[in-house]
């Protein structure tokens, strides 16, 4: 059967949901020969995966995920990464600010795969214990209002394709699936996409995932975040209806910020930037985080629009509430108690 799927995609045909689901299951369980598996994934990537194919893969992998059941309307800000621009950990800081604003956040993430520093790397360097069991992660969410879900612990089945992906050394469909596989049942999501050609397909896939509202974003300069440098295109999915918008920082009262002003570095650099932003330092790093936190706050219904979301994000930083959330997250993840 896999031979048939391989011939289809190599010939430029598209798979339906059932075929994509079956091919994913075979890749994960059937010891498909490396040459065939690599050819299949390469052919998908060359002609670009469509929403039905993404949906089939999501279904196949999510069935085998370790899941966390909580009675909250949750937000995630996990993106695909891979834009290659070297910015700092914007969405991680946006998640902390959203949590400070009273939005329960289930931050799904990993160590660096396509960048120098992943969300897991920077949170761990800041002092958060990222190696929590699912029960511990749920308790952290309930006690603090934010948790971190270290992707490998919730999707152990993906170890089966790890050697293949490393041997191929190029992006495959698996690079786009992580943000769609949060172990919690999300209500809200802001997902950045590095590959513009995949944005609409990801948005269509997102529209099938029962989110109350989600944004799928890609900036003209290639960022998988809302860019402070120029226009960002985003799909706004609400009640399964999808609309496309463009937004410019000038529209929000921000002077454009050159990309080189918001570059990160290694783990020590990105950790320093995170601490400075949460300590209230002004400048391009803060402005970029505020812009992206505003999108998360708006998406979760805590602000009617981006401008109001930016104002609330500023308040969360200047009041010290965002920093306090991080400190509570650190203490509870390590000691099982929260700071007063």
From TrEMBL:
Keyword Oxidoreductase annotated: no
This protein's record includes keyword Nucleotide-binding: no
GO (cellular component) term, any one: cytosol
Keywords: Amino-acid biosynthesis, Aromatic amino acid biosynthesis, Glycosyltransferase, Transferase, Tryptophan biosynthesis
NCBIfam families: trpD
Example GO molecular function: anthranilate phosphoribosyltransferase activity
One protein family per Pfam: Glycos_trans_3N
Annotated GO biological process: L-tryptophan biosynthetic process
Annotated Glycosyl transferase family 3 N-terminal domain residues: 4-64
Protein name per Swiss-Prot or TrEMBL: anthranilate phosphoribosyltransferase
Domain annotation Glycosyl transferase family: ranges: 73-322
Species of provenance: hydrocarbon metagenome
The protein's annotated pathway: Amino-acid biosynthesis; L-tryptophan biosynthesis; L-tryptophan from chorismate: step 2/5
EC number(s) on file: 2.4.2.18
InterPro entries (alphabetical): Anthranilate_Pribosyl_Tfrase, Glycosyl_Trfase_fam3, Glycosyl_Trfase_fam3_N_dom, Glycosyl_Trfase_fam3_N_dom_sf, Nuc_phospho_transferase
């Amino acid at each position: 059967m896999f031979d048939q799927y391989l011939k289809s995609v190599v010939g430029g045909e598209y798979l339906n949901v059932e075929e994509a689901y079956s091919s994913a299951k075979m890749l994960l369980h059937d010891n498909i020969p490396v040459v065939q598996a690599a050819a299949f994934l390469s052919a998908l990537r060359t002609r670009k995966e469509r929403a039905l194919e993404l949906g089939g893969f999501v279904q196949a992998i999510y069935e085998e995920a370790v899941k966390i059941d909580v009675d909250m309307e949750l937000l995630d800000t996990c993106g695909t990464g891979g834009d290659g621009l070297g910015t700092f950990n914007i969405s991680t800081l946006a998640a902390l600010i959203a949590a400070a604003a009273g939005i329960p956040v289930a931050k799904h993430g990993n160590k660096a795969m396509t960048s120098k520093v992943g969300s897991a790397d920077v949170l761990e360097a800041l002092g958060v214990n990222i190696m929590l069991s699912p029960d511990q992660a749920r308790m952290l969410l309930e006690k603090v209002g934010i948790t971190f879900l270290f992707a490998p612990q919730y999707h152990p089945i993906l170890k089966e394709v790890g050697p293949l992906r490393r041997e191929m050394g190029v992006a495959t469909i698996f690079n786009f699936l992580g943000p769609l596989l949060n172990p919690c049942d999300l209500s809200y999501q802001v997902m950045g996409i590095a590959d513009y050609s995949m944005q609409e397909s990801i948005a269509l896939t997102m529209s099938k995932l029962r989110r109350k509202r989600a944004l799928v974003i890609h900036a003209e300069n290639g960022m998988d975040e809302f860019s402070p440098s120029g226009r960002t295109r985003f799909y706004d999915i609400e009640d399964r209806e999808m609309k496309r918008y463009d937004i410019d920082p000038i529209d929000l009262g921000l002077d454009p910020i050159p990309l080189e002003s918001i570059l990160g570095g290694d783990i020590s650099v990105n950790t320093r930037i995170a601490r400075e932003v949460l300590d209230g330092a002004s400048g391009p790093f803060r402005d970029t985080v505020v812009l992206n936190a505003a999108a998360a706050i708006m998406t979760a219904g805590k602000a009617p629009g981006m401008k109001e979301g930016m104002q609330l994000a500023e308040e969360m930083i200047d009041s010290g509430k965002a920093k306090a959330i991080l400190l509570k997250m650190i203490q509870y993840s390590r000691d099982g108690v929260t700071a007063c």
